[in-house]
Amino acid sequence: MKYSPTSMNYLGMLKHLFIVTFCVVLICTVADADEGMIGKWSFGSEETIPFEINGDVKRDQTGPRPPEFPDLPSDNTALRFGGKGYVFIPTADEPTRFQFQQDDEITIEAFVKLDKTRDGHQMYVIGKGRSGSPRFPKDNQNWALRTTSQNGVAKLSFLFATEPTSSDKHWHRWTSTEGFRISSGWHHIAVGYQFGDPESIRGWIDGQRVEGVWDMGGATKLPPVVDEDEVWIGSASRGNNSNSFSGWIDEVAVHRMILSDDVLATRTPPRDGPLKTVALPAVMPDMTLPDPNRVLVTFHEGLGDAGRWLVEGETWPDETTRWSTSSFLLPRMPARFDAQGSRVLWDSPVLVRIAGDFRLPAGTHRMLLRARSLSRLWIDGKLVATTQPLRRRGGNLEPIVPPAEPPFPGGRRAGFVQQEAIVEHTVESDSTRSRVVLEFVVGGNGLRVESGEVCVAIQPEGSGDFLILSPTDTMPLTDAAVEQALPQIEASLVSLEDSDRRRAAASEDDYWDQRHQAARELVKSSSNEQHSIDAFIKSKIVKAVKRQADAKALQDAETFHSEVLPILRDQCFRCHGQKQKGGLRLDHRDEMLKPGESEQLAVVPFDPDASELIVQVRDRAMPPTDEGLTDAQISTLENWVAAGAVWPEPIVDSAKLQPSPLIDDAAFIRRLHLDTIGIPPTAAEAKAFLSDTSQDKRLRWIDKLLRDDRYADHWVSLFMDLLAENPALLNPSMGSTGPFRWFLHDSLKDNMALDRMVTNLILMRGDQHAGGSAGFELAGENDSPMAAKAHLLSSAFLGIEMKCAKCHDSPYHSTTQEDLYSLAAMLGRRPLTPPKTSRVPDAFFESKERESLISVTMDFSHPAQASWPFDDLISSDSSAPAKSFETWLRKPEDTREQAALMFTSIANERFPRVLVNHLWKRLIGTGLVEPVDDWEGKTPSHPELLNWLGNELVLHDYDIKHIMRLIMRSDLYQREAIGDNATDSEEQRYFAAPDRRRLSAEQVVDSLFHCTGSTMNVEELTFVHDGSLPESKRLSLGVPHRAWMFCGLQNERDRPSLSMPRAQVVVDVLDAFGWTGARQNPIALRDTDPNVLQPGILANGTLTSNLTRASAGSELAELAIQTADAESLLESLFLRFLSRFPSDTEREKFTLALATGFEDRILPDAEFSEVPADEPLPVVTWTNHLVGEANEIQQEIQRRVQRGPAPDPRLRPQWRMMYEDVVWSLINHNEFVWVP
Prior knowledge:
Residues 572-626 form the Cytochrome C Planctomycete-type domain. By secondary structure, the chain is α+β, with helices and mostly antiparallel strands.
């Protein structure tokens, strides 16, 4: 497009035309010299120019038009910015054109229309500098016009930077005190300023002057930063979401003078002023209740303003979702999902309405309302109670807030920053039902969408207790009653989330049904054979037994493995193994018989003279050492080739060929529970299974447990490890990601097909901080995030190790640096060049006196293009869907989607085989291919079995549970775990028995809580308990109830106020058993070696000490009190902790211990008193953690954790301690931490 510069007489500047390539026509008009215009952009043409807009920017949107704006064309168009895009103006031809120096005047103007914004969101209209280019400092803002919103009102924001100083106050921002209402149509905005004169600042909205304040950095007379960085419209900082405009922009202009009030008044017709609003009358919502005996909760996202109710011209947002519950008690907001079922943040603020019908008795009652922010309570159309908008807390020195007083003795206190209103309400008659409606606002004003515990309760006239409103139940507002109800409420909220997510995800079901049908047809056409796992295992064992009986075969094997193979391994494999130097491999016979790059056959069986291997070693050309091979070694190789170059299987220890016995029922039910849902069976489950005499009970229990939703709690850790999920609670750190654990857990819980799950992962959908797969995209402190993701995906799902290729070609693999960055470019949707920090300097190679082990073949002068680097993995079969590849692309031009399809397409036979290999290793102990994440140069121990399992996965729509079912039903899985397959080569790996496996760290922790019947009473994993910071600044991972939900708790601040004492004692156990909280790299194999910490922390750790205590109200205490005799108690404990009955020896020893004092173990009522509860402590959060008292509070919590819960006072101390010793001994039994 042609860009016509305006004449600027007073500066005597630019008198020629220059060309700027752009994706839309930006028309810069020649303006009056009086207005000093240096650029104006009217987005008025649809003409296609060969340059793409960056990100989510739409053309030809309706702009400001007559009659409201009579001076603009009737077909005027604008650009719409979706919050993830921008337009840039190259300035290379005239770098000084948009630069403003000291004493220069500037006016920036534009038409804008805003629909929805986040409070505090600084959205760029236009600015120069701060593009994020590595060529310039990041704080190089020459000038910028932005908008910022607060409570539904958009204000002007003018920003520039001066040179940094020691005080670091080099940012200077002026914000108007007046604004215009969001969602109120088009508005003209402008700012004017003379650099060096802070008194010159002025702003205009719709042609009228508005006042403002310098609210950051203060007024300054210093000059602005000036350089040659670009001018951007709609964003800054590399398109960062927090700076990106969301709405419409038109008629942008920049002037090299301050325009007058009269000139700017002509831009729009006269209006009443920047903002005048009239509140709508308060009316109780009319809500239809589907069930009069239930409470209806509706959620409406996108409310205009969190600080007030509706004003004229506004309407209530549509209902987003609804929930049916039993009472006016809402402990939290449900998760939000997008149109594909991915987790996203709520469009804040959110209006929530709770309605129900109740028979309230006649009389004057007290009503209690608890809400965090703006709310109002209605009864039969009358407004009876309200709370006010919550002030957003800031900084780190907010005062410590004492715990709230209970509304009545023994009552439940209001939560931190929850408001409480108690009012009187008179009910005239108890003959009719009253309609109660609560409306409250969540989020907005810069707050997270976190409700806290919201409730409405009534204290009937003449009663002392408050009762939470419920149409059918009576629930006192006490800790005991509420805590008992919360698990059921949480289960109901989770059910709502599951329903919403699955309903949204169903929109893609047809697409995946068609893909799976095509895949099934292809696999069926290539193989219809019926097999079983045990048949494949037996086949290899039978062949080995026959070889062992052949004397000549034994002699050949002895000769080869003792004389020939050591020479090849020591002298040849380093260069001609996985590295395949010269295209030649000598570590497998089939590969050895193929020609290398020289096209000469290395080995010709029975003909040493024709074998290039023999020729090279005779000439001492190989191996490349000073000595070469000895004459004896050469003679050995000659004789071997002359005899046919046989490569027999090694001699096998006969014990490895003998299948181990099948395990008994007790071991089976424990193994099955641990492998499916990650915890042992309850005592009742174990007893039921052991007493079941039916022949098919194992098959039935396999199916039962595979249907259990808790299977996701166990299996999610596998994918978290493989994909290096690593959310940071404080600040981004090396390798930190978003919490995409929720995406993985949701997918497993929904039994999503694995190809669909991996596709959604690669597409990186949803919100990065809310738990969507977009969290996988984040890579903290990484100079090339997409290269890191390419490495993770390749190792996890293709068995291709590319870690070294980030900086150079892989020295021990065939992958190159260009391979990695080509795949990274596909994921990043743009060409990529390795950053300088990920390159080997040329000087490294120049200084080497010998050939380096590493090499760099990539041409850094040309970025790596988005292309698939693994063509050898894609089937060349003409029947494979590769030829109709684009059939399955919904966005053919999207290289990220192309990458997702290449990973998961049926043409990629490696993908399903890698997946089933992960499952095999998890259940049997060793993979069919080892290591599971690096297949190059590896041979499967059972290739036919691997292929069959891969085909089974495809034939059953990539259903992970189908493969698990096949494995668990096999004799192999149900045999005694005495195998040592992990130490065997693939040739000698027979799987006559599964390997013995220690419980994972998560299984150890979950088993401790599960077997003792304890709940995880730990902190919410966040540093923000008042909603004051967005998720992008400080994450919340919720309150864990299973071990997979924890993360690393280390932080660089090392302050007691930022500690989490309750969570830390759990993390200590996880750490001891090989768990990694900060997964900076993928983990395919955890460290399972024993160490002194493991027995130490189980025997003497705080967690074990607390959980084994028969504390007040605990399951262990109730079990001791309710069980009739010592022997029954012992059986219950063994079933609970070890999933079996005690042996005769154990029964004799432990029964004697428990029987001593059993009859009088319970104290008479007169001899004990209830244990007093600890006094509540104030909440420490980010906004007060630097207050001195914050450290003391957290240290007191730590002391309480170390002290542990009080013992149940009903039990006689001497007997109770013996009982606890028995429990302790079962936890420290070697069976407790091993899978049977």
